[in-house]
Structures are given as C-alpha cells and as structure tokens.
Amino acid sequence: MKITKKVFKEEMIQRLKEKYAMDISDATPQELFHVLGSVVKTYYADDWVQTWKDYLTEETKQVYYFSIEFLPGKMLKSNLLNLGILDTVRDGLTELGFSLDDIVDQEKDMALGNGGLGRLASCFMDSIASCGLPGNGNGIRYDYGLFKQRFVDGYQVELPDEWLNNGNVWEVRKESKAIDVRFGGDVYMMPLADGRLKPVYENSRLIKAVPYDTAMVGYQNDVVNTLRLWSVEIPASEESKYRSLEDRRELEDLTAVLYPDDSNERGRRIRLLQEYFFVSAGVQSIVRYFKKLNKPLTTMSQSIAIHINDTHPALCVPEMMRILLDECDLSWEQAWEITVKVMSYTNHTIMSEALEKWPIELMQDLLPRMYQIIEEIDRRFVNQYRKYYEADLIERTRIIRNGQVHMANLAIIGSHSTNGVAKLHTDLLKNVVLHDFYVIFPGRFNNKTNGIAERRWLQLSNEPLAKLLDKTIKTSWRQKPNDLHLLQNFVEDDAVLSAIEEAKYKNKVALAQYIKETTDIVVSPNAIFDVQIKRLHAYKRQLLNLLHILKLYFDIKAKPDLQMEPRVFIFGAKAAPSYSYAKAIIKTINETAQLINNDPDVKDRLKIVFLENYNVTLAERIIPAADVSEQISLASKEASGTSNMKLMLNGAVTLATLDGANIEIRDAVGKENIVIFGLTEEEVYAYYHAQNYNALGIYEDSPTIQKVLNAFIDGTIPNIQFEGQEIFDSLIKYNDEFFVLRDFDSYCLAQKRIEELYQDKRRWQQISLINIANAGKFSADHTVERYAEDIWQIEPVFAHKELTR
Ligand code: NBY
C-alpha cells in the first residue's frame, strides 16, 4: 500500500471534520486517536476482504488458534509499522502540529490475558500474519480485561480495567455471523426409526454468541488475518425465559471478566461456561464455513486445523464430536477420526495445581451433552488400550477419574499432537509429568520452543537500537530476524560497541524519567538496571532477588564506604487477587524499597523500584532499558519464559537458572555470555526423590541467611508483621518449597559476577552485542513456521499474492 503524506493529511483533516465537526487544530489527542484509527482501518480494509476471499476461493487450509486469553497491548503503532506507513504517518502528524506518541498514549492496552500464555497467543497472531500463514485467533471479548494494579500503603489493590469505555476502533461487530450456544437442562437420546440416536434437550438454555473481528495485519505483505472474539447476548426468542434479573445477569456476565488467575481456577461455574461458550461458538462457525466448501466431512483435516492453547479450550474435542454426530449424522468412528486429525494441543506448565480438572456434577449440570460425549470417549479409550497396558497406567491416563474430568487427558487423547514450549519442558512432559501418555502415544509428543514478535519487541519499542542496527547491518533483519546475526561481525568494532551502549543509555534516561514521574524515585541511568518482570509467583522466586538486595543492603550498613557498582532493582509484577502469599511478597518488596531508598547511608548505591500495573505497554518501556535480565525460577518450574527472549533481544545480560528456554538462550550465546547459577533440574529431582531437603539446616549454618531472614520478623523491614512472618515461615517452617535458600549463595556469586562483567565495560558491550546478534533464533516467526509445518500442515499464501499483485 502506497500512501503519501499529503493524502494522509488531507484524509485526517476531512475525517475529523466529518466525525467531530471541527478543525483539526482544535482536536484533542483522544479525538485524533479515534480518527487516526478509523483512517488506518481503511488502509487495510481491502486486504482484509481480499485475504478472506483468497482463503475461500483457493480453499487454503487454515488454522484456528483457540485461546481463552489474548494480550495484544496497543495496536496502533504495530498496525502502522506492518502497513509500512509508520514514518509517513508520524511525519504527517508532525506537520499537522501533533506528536504520534501523544496520540498513541490515548489507546488503551487490550489486556485480555494474564501473562505469558496470553502474550504468546498475540505474538503468534502477529507472526502468523507476517509469515503469510492462513490462521485466525478465536477467543473471548471480555468487557473487562486484566485488573489495573495500584499500590496503597505498599499493598496491591485491584481496579477494574474498563478498556471499552471509549469504544474500540479496531473491532468490527458481525451480528450476521452470530451463533447459538446451548447449555444446561437435561438431554436424553431418542432412537430414530433407522436405529440412530438423536439428542433431545429439555429445559436447556440458548444464548447468542456475537463475534467481534479484529484485523491481524501482516508485516508489509498484504495479508490480513482475523482475531475473532465472542461476546454473549440473550437472544430475543429467549427473553421470556428470564423471569428474574439475577438469571439474566448471570448470563450477561458470562463474558464480563477475564479470570485474573494465571495458574488455577477452582471449579467455578462461570469459568466452565466461558470455556464452552467460545469453544462452541468457534467450532460451530468453523464447521459452518467448511460446509460452504462442499467437501466431504471426512476430508475436514485437509482444510481445517484447530489448536487448543492450554486446556481451557479442550472442550473443542467433545464439541466437534457433538456437531459431527448430532448435526452431521456421522458414525462415532468417522467423527473421532476427523476430530483427532483436526485438533492439536499445547501444554504450558508442569505445575500440578495448574492442571485443569472439573467436578463431574458440575459438568453434567452445565454441559450435559458434553459430559455424555466425554464419558463415551473415556469408555472407548479404556476399552481400546487396556488390552495393551497395565490397569494402573490406564487408570492414570483416563479422562474421568476420582469424580473429576481431567482436561489435559481429554486434550491429549482427543488430538494428534501435544507439544511443550521449550526443550527442557517437553522432555519433562515426556519423561515425568505426562510420561504415561508418552508410553501410549510416543508419536504425538513434540517440542515447539516459544518465540516473540521481534517487530513489537525491537522495531517498535526500541527505536535507538533499531536505527543503530539499520546503520550497522542494513535493514534486512526487519524482514528476517535471523539476519541479526550479521551484528556478530562487529563484536570487535569499538564504534559499534559504544553505539550499542549509547542506545541503551538513551533508553535508560527515558525509563529514569518515567520512574521519576510515576514514583518520585530518582535513579541514575549510570547504575545497573536489573530487571525482573513477570507474574508474581513463588516458583519464579522474586523472593530470591529480594534476599540478595537485602544482603547488599546489610553489606553497606556494615561497611558504610563499601565500593560497589550502583544498582537499580526494577520489578514489575501482578499477583492473582486470591494469591495471598504473592501479595505478601509485593508488600514486602515495597516496604523494603521504602527502607532502602530513604536510608541516607545507602547514598544511591542501591534503589528498588516496583513499578505499578505491569502490562504490555510498560514492558515496552522497561525492556529496552534493562542491563540485567532476571530469569531465576527454580529449575524445572518455568515451562519456557518469554521475557527472557525479549530482554536478550534488547541487549540485556541474562542472569538465569537452567530452566525453560534459558537453556536454549545459553546454547545460542555461549556460556561466557550469560550468567548461570543454581540447582539443575536433575538436582531438584534428586532432592524430591531423596526427600532430604532441609531449609532449616541451611539457615542455621549461614550467618548471612540468618541476618537476611531475620529482617522479615524482627522489625528491620517495617510494617510487615504479618507478611514477614508468612514469608519466614514459608522458608523455615514449611521447608522452602522452591529451594530459595539452597540457591541463595550461588545466586549471590552470580550477582557478583554480573558486577565484575559490568565493570569491564568493553566486555559488557560485547556480551550485549552477542545477545542481540543471537536473538533472531527466538523470533515467533520461526516458531509458528514450525507449528505450520509439523502440526497444522498449512502453507504460506505468498505464492498466490505474488501472482496477483
Ligand atoms: O506460558 C506461561 C508459562 O508459565 C511460561 O513459562 C511460558 O513461557 C508461557 C508461554 O508458553 N503460562 C501461563 O502464562 N499461564 C497462564 O497464563 C494461565 C492462565 C490461566 C490459567 C492457567 C494458566 N487458568 O488455569 O486459569
């Protein structure tokens, strides 16, 4: 698309007049944002229609990525970049007297996700479109996204995220594509004259699922895919059934809020209904589309792939079965073959409390037909495999067990592919967590290491570095992230090395400014910016970070003129509202920040900054300014991590355990260019087997640990009487579930190593460069290409595009 500055400016002036009846010079940034959004939409409208038509007429095989979370953040700049008009628009606006950045500030973050899993889904949407792959997202249009976090007296307080308050320019409501979804009541099977059975529903309810489509614009390739999010409405025909306001409310609330937990949802009715709601609407609309192609249902897997992102959409399996059996009259065997061929599943965690299970009664009550079908899948599974395997193994792998429906078991049994999200994670799935399934279905298991959208996490968020790269290695890296490798040739080039440092410095100045504005804390851009940004979880061990900071603090107190490299420790993290331990950690970090930041003895050698409301937009500010990337989860617990990749791409040095994708980052940069510490996964498992971990012993043997831990309960850290005790007890009384004390010494040594490296300026610059140069490997473009080839069997549409252009 070729848009000139002149045309763009005229369009802005004209549209603003039409929409707000005013001269552009009088417009507020908010008004400008809305007009700009609608102008940008016209720039991709034709391609959006065309992409859709191409898929239909060419009968291209498409993937549908089902995820209960998507976390795109802001979309304006990313759309401009991908349309190739970022500079045109920025310059045009400048000439009109406005700054693009002020207008960008007006856009609300679209935060329909909790953390890594939701953000991964959005990186994949960007990469799928940018690689020209035919793929669409399918999810829920929550009225309220992830809560806004505020700190009050150091405590996390949650406020509703009213992201739709000023409307949403990017979405298109498609009333005509609405779908009826049925739930509740009773169902029984009525025999027909020809011997088949038909379900008869009594007292069930119908709700209407209305899709809202958002364009997923590919990077300068004319491909525009669709993210389809469903919203609930009560169909006119059903109005009379709702006598009480409460009844109505329960339904209307179905798509009201995103559950703010990133590990477990304890069997809540509305959550199960949410899962079925978007699955049923999505699968029904896919089958409706497939029928338009006039092909035999038995060939569905040649046209359609459905991806189940974690177990939340696992009902895709029985829902597809229901449609094929009840509405298309296929036999069980035919329906099952199609379903398994179409479905694939990604697992994102080995933490057992996060493996989703639903009580049988709840499932029967809310989704009676789903339950019948799951029972039959379970029965047939047991029947088929008990011939070959011992009874215990079958018992452990079946779907219905101990009064519960095991969703991971359903997803694995009902799909042809199960993947983990980093090499170590996949190995643990095969060898430990899902080993029983691996025995039965060895060919279904595969690894797909996560990746990130390099466009957002470098091109958009780190302009100083992006420009430097253009100058140094030309611009091909923008199309092909692997070309970042070219930077490796400059590892001995002093000019390039110091330019990298200058770009980092610039970003640090900008972050320091933001920190001053939002927290009133003054930090020096000359200090080491040490960053830990991720959800607050015991296994991610923000506590280990804090213990080390306290150690540094006591070192200073013991030796007031201690020479050390000044440090700023930056945290960004939300805790699930119901996760009281995580909230205690937040409170404690905030109180420690008060203590240290205001102690005159510290003299700016140490600062703690806990930024409020960590989200995609804040990540885009912090990551370009980071010197050190904290990836310190207990080995074996972090499935992959993705902030590790984003920070590396921006030249931060990784300080990490051998967990998740950290291992692959080490392999990519070489062990001299990363700082590794702590127990390995084998050592962690050895402790589990021997059951001989003794946190109290470590405490008793180490005066340093005693000093640091006692600060939690002796009043040294103020205002944490309750929280301090809770944390102390978690380590000593409850034997330190995540081996924080065991890894403490090793972590402190690693931090010492970071300081030494930083003091060798040139060496640090080189490590930084090597990290950037080797980050292309972690582009989500590669990841989705692997999914496309190995799992979905879909192909890019470029060949066609080239011909018709
Ligand atoms: O998925 C994360 C993993 O912890 C991280 O290591 C990985 O990089 C990332 C992408 O693969 N998992 C995650 O973010 N999980 C969730 O957000 C989540 C959300 C909801 C629920 C469970 C997990 N839930 O049960 O409601």
TrEMBL record:
Keywords: Allosteric enzyme, Carbohydrate metabolism, Cytoplasm, Glycosyltransferase, Pyridoxal phosphate, Transferase. Signal peptide: none annotated. It catalyses: [(1->4)-alpha-D-glucosyl](n) + phosphate = [(1->4)-alpha-D-glucosyl](n-1) + alpha-D-glucose 1-phosphate. One of its GO terms (cellular component) is cytoplasm. One of its GO terms (biological process) is glycogen catabolic process. Its cofactor is pyridoxal 5'-phosphate. InterPro entries: Glycg_phsphrylas, Glyco_trans_35, Pyridoxal_P_attach_site. Pfam families: Phosphorylase. This is Alpha-1,4 glucan phosphorylase. It comes from Enterococcus saigonensis.
